[in-house]
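Weekly sync, protein design subgroup
Attendees: M.S., D.O., the rotation student, P.L. (late)

Item 1: inverse folding check
M.S. brought a backbone from last month's batch and wanted to see whether the design step gives back something sensible before we order anything. D.O. pointed out we never logged the input encoding, so this time it goes straight into the notes. Structure tokens as presented (204 positions):
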């Protein structure tokens, strides 16, 4: 019997729809998880590009609200109030604000975000881990975020957010790892208030 040779192009065409389908299924699963999460609390560890690590507590309430409460001795607070993400440095009385949608965290905080238009699946060495990279091609200045999810039947839509790596418009890389994640419990809106350290009076 003569060997049968199948052209590489034919193999590629057979594989490509399968890969595309798997990617679509993974993105749908991630989208279903994000839509199923109304609130989340967790402990976090945050490592910057210099390798410095700090810890703290995370509170998230969708849409648009998030709070990074850092460990004692770190005079920094990051709060999203539904509209803006605010960085407060109490040591120098400095406040910076950005629209939430123009930060890498926007994909986590907007339950109506269409992941298929901004995200893609990344290769993962662990079949139990799903890696999704999200970026707005129309706005590269918004930065990029890579989310890591593990399969977990007890978590919303069967996925557990384990953390993320974000790169902002200044190319600052930040790695966040989560632990003790709890979903869809009550979180007061007062959690996302913050005290302004700037002196009272007119501000330019």
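Designed sequence read out in the meeting:
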């Amino acid at each position: 019997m003569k060997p049968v040779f199948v052209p590489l192009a034919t193999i590629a065409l057979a594989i490509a729809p399968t890969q595309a389908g798997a990617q679509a299924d993974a993105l749908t699963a991630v989208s279903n998880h994000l839509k199923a999460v109304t609130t989340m609390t967790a402990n976090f560890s945050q490592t910057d590009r210099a390798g410095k690590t700090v810890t703290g507590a995370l509170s998230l309430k969708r849409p648009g609200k998030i709070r990074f409460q850092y460990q004692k001795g770190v005079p920094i607070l990051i709060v999203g109030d539904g509209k803006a993400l605010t960085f407060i440095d109490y040591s120098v009385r400095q406040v910076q604000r950005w629209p939430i949608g123009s930060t890498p965290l926007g994909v986590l905080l907007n339950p109506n975000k269409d992941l298929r238009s901004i995200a893609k699946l990344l290769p993962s060495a662990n079949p139990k881990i799903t890696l999704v990279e999200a970026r707005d091609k129309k706005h590269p200045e918004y930065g990029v975020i890579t989310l890591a999810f593990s399969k977990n039947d007890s978590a919303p839509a069967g996925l557990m957010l384990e953390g993320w790596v974000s790169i902002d418009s200044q190319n600052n890389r930040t790695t966040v790892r989560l632990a003790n994640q709890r979903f869809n419990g009550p979180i007061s809106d007062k959690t996302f208030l913050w005290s302004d350290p700037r002196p009272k009076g007119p501000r330019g």
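Discussion: The helical segments are 8-36, 106-109, 115-118. The longest strand covers residues 173-183.
Action: P.L. to compare against the previous round before Friday.
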